[in-house]
Design goal:
The chain is α+β, with helices and mostly antiparallel strands and 450 residues long. It contains 18 helices and 16 strands.
Length: 450
């Protein structure tokens, strides 16, 4: 017996219904990006390994999918390299790899095409990325990223617009979210005033557990991580930070009075929040937010869904030297990335897909034979020209079989054409939900809100 076909672990097939839902997500995000003047680019699935290696740290390098050189690449090569490492062998037989994210290829794109780009450059990119990770629930080896970045401008107005984009997208989806904001400079300021600059990650990880383990638990964890008692004492107003965004900012202004970088972070947060005005979703200053610490240099954002238990569904921040890795230093940028797979799960759980986003064919014409088909084809052409998705059953099979097809595809209307309809120049339209039938002219059919 032939082996049943399968796909690699950590990859997925998407059915027509899933694709309709995914396209609804991508199209909504794409439309909003375009509203704000972002332009779409695409980069190749594979990049030169020299572009990718060393950009994601040692762990990231291990997770790169490498592509074997074509041709007889092993000719004259010992199968076991002198140092016995697979990396040394890979370096000799692989020159290319699949992209790990969209950010490094974007940096390469900006440097390679800098003569053609008008700065600031606002780009968005919706493409798959690949990671040779251990597949587990919610973690795939192939998945999509939906990034938007502005490079070549240090203005905080870019941060403001990205927050508005997030708000607009989730409002269109009908999902209530909390947009959390923080600033890398505030975190640096905190570490500076308590004299623990190298412990900033431990500090934010501990503070982040306040809801779960309480104040005593947080302080105990800080102590375990080697943070001295007087530093923990200074952290108390930060750990207990409560109130409105402006109250939190005022507290931070007094706590960070002796830190120039910390005060700069407070000022930046205040500016972004003040310029946002009223959003449909809440925005919250959250000092426990510490994503991508080695990477971000200014504002950092994260979005949580309020009605579904799930991790962050969008994130991003300001970085100062995206293109420095390719020899073009000093180009500041800020970006966000929507987590399409998590958004897909949220919209599924809350059942928020609009009906017309997931249904395709609106009318199925029943096929009674050659003569009826000849009558129907010009009508079908007119309906399609009017933007109505229409199909005709390809064979003159039994009526029951054709109706079953309409039900299986969730087609809302079936058009029936026999002698009577042809004589009158009309069609009978059957509503599959109610069973109601109407004899209509072509114009009447195109006027119905299908």
């Amino acid at each position: 017996m032939a082996q049943k076909p399968s796909i690699p672990k950590g990859t997925r097939d998407f059915s027509p219904l899933e694709m309709a839902k995914r396209n609804y997500i991508f199209n909504t995000i794409r439309e909003v990006y375009a509203l704000y003047g972002f332009q779409q680019i695409e980069t190749p699935a594979m990049e030169n390994l020299s572009t990718l290696m060393g950009k994601y740290g040692e762990e990231g390098d291990k997770l790169l999918f490498k592509i074997l050189n074509s041709g007889d690449f092993l000719k004259g090569e010992p199968l076991s390299p002198a140092d016995g490492s697979s990396n040394a062998l890979a370096a000799k037989i692989c020159e290319k790899g699949l992209r790990y994210d969209l950010t490094v290829p974007f940096a390469r794109f900006v440097v390679q095409h800098r003569e053609e780009l008008a700065l600031p450059f606002k780009r968005y990119q919706i493409q798959p990325v690949w990671r040779a990770d251990r597949p587990q629930k919610g973690r795939y080896r192939e998945f999509y990223q939906c990034d938007a970045d502005v490079v070549g401008s240090e203005s905080l107005l870019n941060e403001v617009e990205l927050m508005q984009i997030i708000d607009t997208v989730f409002t269109r989806f009908g999902v209530r979210v909390c947009i959390k904001i923080n600033n890398r400079k505030i975190l640096s300021g905190i570490a500076e005033i308590i004299g623990q600059a190298d412990k900033i990650v431990d500090i934010t990880v501990a503070i982040d557990k306040l809801d779960k383990i309480g104040l005593d638990g947080v302080n105990a964890e800080l102590k375990e991580n080697g943070i001295p008692a007087e530093a923990i004492e200074k952290l108390q107003p930060i750990i207990n930070l409560k109130g409105t965004n402006s109250e939190k900012l005022n507290t931070m202004r007094s706590v960070l009075a002796d830190s120039e970088i910390g005060l700069k972070g407070v000022e930046e947060c205040e500016y972004i929040i003040s310029k946002l005005g009223s959003l449909n979703n809440q925005i919250e200053l959250d000092l426990t937010l510490a994503r991508g610490l080695n990477y971000y240099t200014g504002a950092i954002f994260e979005v949580k869904a309020l009605d579904v238990e799930i991790g962050s569904i969008t994130g991003g921040g300001r970085y100062d030297n995206l293109t420095g890795i390719f020899g073009m230093p000093g180009l500041s940028g800020v970006g966000i990335s929507f987590g399409a797979d998590r958004i897909f799960d949220v919209l599924n759980q809350l059942d928020l897909y609009p009906k017309d986003a997931v249904s395709t064919t609106k009318i199925l014409f029943v096929n009674f034979g050659e003569k009826e088909m000849d009558y129907c084809l010009p009508i079908i052409a007119k309906l399609r020209a009017a933007g109505i998705s229409t199909e005709i059953y390809p064979d003159s099979s039994k009526m029951k079989k054709q109706m079953s097809y309409a039900n299986a595809k969730d087609i809302p209307y079936v058009a029936i054409v026999g002698e009577t309809e042809m004589a009158e120049g009309k069609i009978t339209l059957k509503n599959m939900a109610t069973g109601e039938q109407q004899l209509l002219t072509i114009k009447e059919v195109t006027d119905i809100q299908l």
